[in-house]
Amino acid sequence: MSMKVMHIDSGLGNQMLAYCELLAYKKANPEDDFYIETMVYDIEQACRTISQWNGYELDKVFGIKEKNIKDLFDELQWQRILSSVIRSKFWDDNWRYSDAICGALNTEGINLNNIYSRPHKPPKKELLAFMTKTRAGYFIKRKLYTLLSNKVIDSRNMYIKSSTNDYIGPTLQFSYKNRGIELLDREIRQVFSFRDIEDEYNKNMSKMINYSDSVAIHARRGDMLSANGHYYKFGYFKRAVKFIQSRVPNPTFFFFCDPGNIEWVKRNLSVFGLKSEEDNIQYVNGNTSDNSFRDMQLMTQCKHAVITNSSFGFWGAYLIDNKNKITCSPDIRINTTHNF
Known about the structure:
Strand order of the largest sheet: 7-6-5-8-9-10
Radius of gyration: 21 Å
Structural class: alpha/beta
Helix content: 40-55%
Number of helices: 14
Number of strands: 10
Strand content: 5-15%
Shape: elongated
């Protein structure tokens, strides 16, 4: 029997993707001992670099209980591990947490095969040279990520079945097509089961969603605007909305946004190909902070969905239980029924 440690960070959507990868490893290695590792949530500098939203939520939202690698150490040992990882300043070097964490765990007696080692951040001159060769500015981040990550992604499939003690950083990207998420569908729908809604605001919103031809629109902006901004500029939402209107007789569009962006949506309905005086529109604006997961829950109750490039939106669309659902995304790689 060997040990597998799954790294988890970021918001709820990414945590769910990481947990899917853990499920895949468990199916392939049923005799192994599995742990999660959630150290980033305790590192203030990392949280300032990439938003960690509401911290680790899989237990709170879904009641998922997993052993945490932290529990194998006493408080003094864990503080040494945490201090060592902080000294690495991985957040300034291509988010290379796996090297720092594996090194720190090794000094305390747990030696793991790091199968998520990332390259160092490219020198500034090399990065600038790459950017000047890229004609379309909004492709820069995607192409750079691909250049840095392909080797990691290509090699990961070999490690699903493994007899070694492995440290796993989630890269299989189960939100993409042809990654095998359908092989885990039954387990996913069992484990990602939301608890009942009890507050009046969400009960009323749930009723409106269930008694209409509801279409969730996930207008993700905020910290993802640099990645999603061009979808607002170049007609993605208009194309997706028009497609749904041509196939759904009387749709009601429910907008889900980052905190503070509902008013922007109301002022810019033309971006979505909608008019307040002609279309049925509802704005979901009652869930924030620790309660924000309710937005995902309400999205899953809709009949159809239009999402951006967002793991939160992906799960809202994927978990819709409608065999005739239309789910739209802007990237041909994302596992939705249609891409625009």
